[in-house]
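User: I'm new to structure prediction. If I give you an amino acid sequence, what do you actually give back? Let's try with this one:
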Amino acid sequence: MATLDGRSGGAHRQIDRSLRARTRPTVDSVDPLPLREGRVIASNRDHAVVAQISALAGSLRDPSEAALESLEQFAAIVPYVGIALTAWNPLVRRHRVVGQLGYPENVLSYLNEGYFRLDPAYRMMQLGNARLTRWRDTPFDYHQSYSVQCVFEPAGYREGLTAYLTTFDGRYAGALHVSTDSARHPSDAACIAIHVLRPVFANVCDTMRAPAWLAASVAPSSNAIALSMAGDLLPIPGRPAGPWLIEDSPLIAHVRRNPYRDARFLWEDTTRAWHRVHVLRVDAGVVVCESATPSPYGLTSREIDVLTLIADGWSNRMIAEALVVTPRTVATHIEHVLEKLGSPNRAALAARVVDEGLARLPPPGGATGRAAPLTVGVASAPSAGHR
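Assistant: Good question. You get back a string of structure tokens that encode the predicted 3D arrangement of the chain. For your 387 residues, that looks like this:
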């Protein structure tokens, strides 16, 4: 019998050898069943249920609610005992259950964790050999796997199916698991319906939709990237990263060193061109939006330095020390900034910086080492768990 750590010997090795050999045809991702020969015809009822599930899953509602209602409708296609939709979150590199019906806690725990590490059918789907697989469709004896012997059969399941879910642009989004107490189900016709619904369920599971919506609502024409708490860069669907939201970029290096919860600021690149930057907190990471911009209000680079430190409450003498200039020079810069922004005093300048995200980050003159850390432009400090 296979064990959780995979050191079972015979059965597990036999499965791996069979998988590598692929001696029998597998369920194809385009033609999952013998549909072309006309041997499988989905019923009108199945068509209606597929349409209804597609409408539910595509509605503007909480993904968990949409998933649960969709899975309830699924009983008309497959007489399942357990069904679960699990979403892959690339920001934390873990699966989580979006919606489920009928599975006990121990099976759900396995479907969230062990299944994706140990199951040979899932490994086969990862390799691209199939996108939808029943136990009886595998090119090896799936009943000898750990999944069946130690999880599914003890729970009373006699057959099952997993659909590997990918988005329209090819990203892995999660999996649909279906378990039944009859070796006859899921039927061939049910598999066709599930195959048709794969992109629909992938859309429900797509955890990168939220970062994409956030970036579109805040900075619709900007470059954008997601940054996980571990520091990994992840593309956002439909958004270019541009030349500055990539590995080894000084802007990304700054955001990694300063894990903002939410922030707006100005950033000057190595060619002395200016960029507007938004850092937006999402679950388990941040979205970074960047777009090139002319210097706001015609301010010089030095005037933006002074404005940034004024907004953080620095005195003229402190600013002069940080920028290695005289207090009189600082006073002259402040006069120019007040005139260009049309502000009556320093307090009004500070309010404009916060409202419009005019602070320069990283701060000028190594400012964060001379006084309290620069917080202007940061909507809220990072929580302890995000440091």
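You can read the tokens as a compact description of the fold. Here is one thing that stands out. The domain at 10-206 is CATH 3.30.450.40 (Beta-Lactamase).
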